[in-house]
Structures are given as structure tokens and as C-alpha cells.
Design a protein that fits this description.
This protein is of the alpha/beta class. The chain has 16 helices and 21 strands.
């Protein structure tokens, strides 16, 4: 008998398999699910008249790859909250069984246990909000709980739990299922325990797409565990738990070209968390501060006064007095939101509008995601599927002095045309969006010769698109970039950026000529997007508008 069978509620083991129609199969006539045969009247959602796959194979496989586990060791849930509920329902009998947790922590653990009628055994973090594995074992072991929830990093305190402590606790409690809730794992330095969940029989790891992947509204998460535990979760899971639009959103968000953008977002949130923690540490009313996940946990000396001032500023945070006297959990927001928060603490700073943009563009031929920051030189990560084009785009960003993260999945097996053109369109859109109202920029840009090649690029960020390309190429391609596409790239950039771009190139070597065009474009952009340094936000136009 497996551990899961030994610990499970007997009535759950006695349940027959759920009788549902199952996943729709292409090429079959589906008359087995009492669905409406006609498509929905919701634009963009033609298939939601049919029940979705209870465990969508493609999404399950993608999540398994993301967390480095086998699909059979993973169950897709409605966020990680749903996984908590399923675990409690599968293993805890009313009155007889209990769950354990380490307070202060995520309230849902105790809430789902009490709904089920199970008891709650609570250990505590130390006075300085650290995790003490020995103290946890001393409190929990005598109670012999069915489940022990360990949130790492912990919500709301941000306290990390060393993976070695999780392993030690799981070994010390062989008759307890230890649940490592890694909802904020992407924001932690600690390695995930997901790959060990199938190896340690009584370990379950929870993950979610709500935090790092921006899908809180889609409600997609998962539990990773020994297949015998996954089989029990399947028995207590609702017949069709995952809405079709949520499945599609998750697959879209986890597609290869999106992943670099997610990584950049996480890095930005961590950097902003560090900066916000440093500034709030200067506030007289903040007694103690801890950073973890995508949030900060503060202890303030007058929470009632802070609550009034935050309400007046229309800022909502979570007050957690049971976690610590004057406890406040604050999520990291956008640059403008963070500046508004600092102002409430009397730490106002003049916030220049962020010149950043994220663009996602999907067509029948290409799927492109881009992140650009005009006021930061790094990172630069470009993956178009066309290596020489990657190099040229990197030259534009490097010489332009801005950060560029771009990934494209295109129909390169057919031709490179669509990828080359669509990337230029998205780059232009990203630059235009990041520039915003263009106040304070140089507006005009130009560049000088390179080697034996003379490449000149003139730019006017006027808002009026116009492209002119003077020059030709003797070879059909340089690397894997067709030279016939080079003028087309600058025309697409001009159209989507809303700029006049004049390019003139001559020389003896086509490689140098193509590279010269892109380098000169980057140098021209550097001057055109540069802020004048005066702090004034006047428009560089005698008309007063661009």
C-alpha cells in the first residue's frame, strides 16, 4: 500500500472514477456531453460551447517541462489555492484529522482545513520572523497531522524556508504529507523542490502562474507529487475545473517567445523591491522590514495613522496585525505606483515617467514578444531565429544605448520574410510606446561612417512616417538575412515608429554595408531618444506638438 493510500480518507479511496465525457477529439462527432452544438456568441471564443479537457494534455506537459517533472507527477489546478483545497479534501476527515502550519502564514491553509472540519496545529516563526525547523518539529510531531503546509518564501512575512529543512522535516514526519507552497518561488534564490516531489514520497510542491507569469485572473496552478498522490487529487477534482480561455491564456503566456519577457519582469520586480526596501528603511515610522516574494513586510509604529493616509491616497495594502504588531504587507507595483507609496511615507521623489514598453504581436506567421527600456543599457537578449538579424538588432540596441529583450517564433521553414518584417514592426511599436509623449527628447539623430563603408542614417521622431533608402547590395544575403529585406526593415520601422528615416549606404563589402546601416541607425536613435538633461519636459517642436 502506497503512502497516499495509507493516509487518504477511506471514502475517497472507495470513490469510483468520475464519469465525464472527456476531452474533445478532432474528427469525431460529439454527442456524449449534452453540449450546445452551436458556437458561442462571444467574439474570439468560438469553442467555449464545448467542455474543455479536464486535464489539458498540452498544458500539463508544458507545466511539467517548466518545473522539470514528468506529466504524471503533476496535476493542473485552479491556481494553487485549489490544490490546497484538494489536498485537504483528499486526506483529512472531519474531527479526526488535522493539518499543521507555521504562523503567521497564508490564511487559506487553516481556512480549507476548517471548512473540511479538520483541526489546525500551529507552530510559529521565531520572534524575528525566522523559520526554526527544530521548533516546528517539536510542535507538529506529537499531533501527527495529515498535512503540513510550509510556504516558502512565506506569505506575508517573506521568510525563506531552506530546502534542506523541508527535506529534514519530511524525513522526520514519514506519516505526514509535507506541502512546500512555492507560489513565490520565482522571486526566491532558493532552488525549487519540484523535481524532488516524486522522489520524496511525502513531499508535495505547489506552483502557480498567478505571480511571476501575470495570470492571477486565469487561475492556473499545479501540484507536483508522487503519482499515487496525483491519482487521489484526480478523484476529488471537479469534472471540468479549468475554463477553456484560461487554458489558452496559460499556453500563450508560457510559449517560448514569452519566457524571456517573464524573466525580465521578475528581474525588474526584484530590483524595484530592493530599491523600495532601501527607501522605506529610511522612514521613521518603519520599525522593521523584510523583503520576500514580490512584496515587502513592514512593521510600523502607528498602523491606524498609516491606514488613513494610504486610504486618502487611494492605495490599498494588507494590514496583518496577527503576523506582527503593526504588520503591513505591500506588493511591489509599477514605478509610478511605488512612487505614490513612498510619498505616503514622506519619501517623495520626482518620478520621471518610465520609458519602457512591452509588445506582444501574434499573427498566422509569427509570434513575437518584446520588452524595451530606453533608460537602461541592459539586458540585451534577442532571439529571432535568424542569427545575423539577432546580431544586427543587438547592434541597434547597443549603439542606441537601450535595453532590448525580443523573441520571435516564425515560419522560417517557409521563408524569413515574415519574421524579419514583423520584428521591425514590433521594434518600431516598442520604441514609439516607450517614447510616450516625447517630451524632452532630442528628436533628431544622425550617424557617421564606418570602415570602408559609409552608412548615414538621419532620423526625425516627428510622428510622420517616411522612409528613404539609398544604396544597393551585390549579394542575395549576408549570413541568413536576405539583403533585399534591409530597405524593407527601415520602411517598416518608419511606419510603426512614426518617424522619418533616411538611410544612405555605399561601400565594397555587403556585410559591412548591412552592419553599417544598423549601427548607424542605433547611433542615430541614441541622439534622437536622449533626454536633454535639463529636467524640462518641453516638446522639441516649434508647433508644441509632435
Amino acid at each position: 500500500m502506497s503512502l497516499a493510500e495509507r493516509l487518504a480518507r477511506p471514502e475517497i479511496l472507495a470513490l469510483p472514477p468520475v464519469d465525464i465525457a472527456g476531452a474533445p477529439l478532432a474528427g469525431t462527432i460529439r454527442l456524449d456531453a449534452n453540449e450546445n452544438p452551436f458556437g458561442s456568441l462571444v467574439a474570439g471564443q468560438p469553442a467555449i460551447n464545448r467542455y474543455p479537457d479536464p486535464q489539458p494534455t498540452e498544458l500539463r506537459r508544458r507545466l511539467a517541462d517548466l518545473h522539470g517533472v514528468a506529466p504524471g507527477s503533476l496535476w493542473v489546478t485552479r491556481g494553487s489555492d485549489d490544490a490546497i483545497d484538494l489536498l485537504v479534501r483528499a486526506f483529512c476527515r472531519a474531527v479526526e484529522d488535522s493539518v499543521a502550519l507555521v504562523e503567521p502564514t497564508f490564511a487559506a491553509y487553516a481556512q480549507f482545513a476548517r471548512i473540511q472540519g479538520a483541526g489546525v496545529v500551529a507552530a510559529r516563526l521565531t520572534d524575528d520572523l525566522a523559520f526554526d525547523a527544530d521548533a516546528v518539529l517539536a510542535t507538529v510531531a506529537p499531533a501527527r497531522p495529515k498535512l503540513l503546509f510550509l510556504c516558502t518564501p512565506n506569505n506575508p512575512t517573506g521568510t525563506p524556508v531552506d530546502p534542506a529543512d523541508v527535506r529534514r522535516i519530511a524525513a522526520a514526519l514519514p506519516d505526514t504529507i509535507v506541502v512546500a507552497d512555492e507560489a513565490y518561488g520565482e522571486f526566491s534564490d532558493a532552488p525549487s523542490l519540484a523535481a524532488e516531489a516524486g522522489l520524496i514520497a511525502n513531499l508535495v510542491v505547489l506552483r502557480t502562474l498567478s505571480k511571476a507569469y501575470g495570470l492571477a485572473g486565469a487561475r492556473i496552478g499545479c501540484a507536483v507529487a508522487d503519482p499515487s498522490i496525483i491519482e487521489l487529487l484526480a478523484r476529488v477534482s471537479p469534472p471540468y475545473p479549468l475554463p477553456g480561455p484560461s487554458i489558452a491564456a496559460a499556453l500563450g503566456a508560457l510559449s517560448p517567445e514569452r519566457m524571456p519577457i517573464h524573466a525580465e519582469r521578475v528581474a525588474r520586480i526584484l530590483a524595484d523591491r530592493g530599491r523600495l526596501a532601501e527607501r522605506l528603511g529610511e522612514a521613521a515610522q518603519v520599525k522593521r522590514l523584510r523583503a520576500g516574494g514580490n512584496f515587502l513586510f513592514l512593521e510600523v509604529d502607528d498602523p491606524d495613522d498609516l491606514s488613513r493616509r494610504l486610504a486618502a491616497a487611494a492605495i490599498r495594502v494588507r494590514f496583518r496585525p496577527k503576523a506582527a504588531p503593526g504588520g503591513v504587507r505591500i506588493t511591489i507595483g509599477t514605478e509610478a505606483e511605488n512612487a505614490a507609496l513612498l510619498a505616503v511615507f514622506g519619501l517623495g521623489e520626482e518620478a520621471r515617467p518610465a520609458r519602457r514598453a512591452e509588445i506582444v504581436r501574434d499573427t498566422n506567421e509569427t509570434r513575437i514578444a518584446l520588452a524595451i527600456d530606453l533608460d537602461r543599457a541592459e539586458p540585451r537578449r534577442i532571439s529571432s531565429g535568424i542569427p545575423f538579424y539577432d546580431h544586427m538588432l543587438d547592434q541597434v540596441a547597443a549603439h542606441g544605448g537601450f535595453s532590448l529583450v525580443l523573441a520571435c517564433q516564425g515560419d522560417l521553414a517557409t521563408d524569413s520574410h515574415h519574421s524579419v518584417e514583423d520584428i521591425a514592426i514590433v521594434l518600431g511599436q516598442g520604441l514609439k510606446t516607450a517614447l510616450g509623449d516625447k517630451a524632452g527628447i532630442g528628436r533628431f539623430g544622425f550617424a557617421l561612417p564606418m570602415d570602408e563603408t559609409r552608412a548615414e542614417v538621419l532620423i526625425d521622431l516627428s510622428g510622420r512616417p517616411f522612409a528613404k533608402f539609398e544604396g544597393g547590395f551585390a549579394t542575395a544575403s549576408v549570413g541568413d538575412l536576405p539583403t533585399e529585406m534591409v530597405p524593407h526593415i527601415f520602411r517598416s520601422l518608419a511606419d510603426s515608429l512614426g518617424a522619418a528615416i533616411h538611410v544612405r549606404v555605399d561601400g565594397d563589402n555587403d556585410h559591412h554595408k548591412v552592419e553599417g546601416c544598423f549601427k548607424a541607425f542605433g547611433r542615430a536613435l541614441r541622439g534622437a531618444i536622449a533626454l536633454d538633461g535639463s529636467g524640462e519636459r518641453s516638446l522639441p517642436s516649434t508647433k508644441g506638438v509632435l
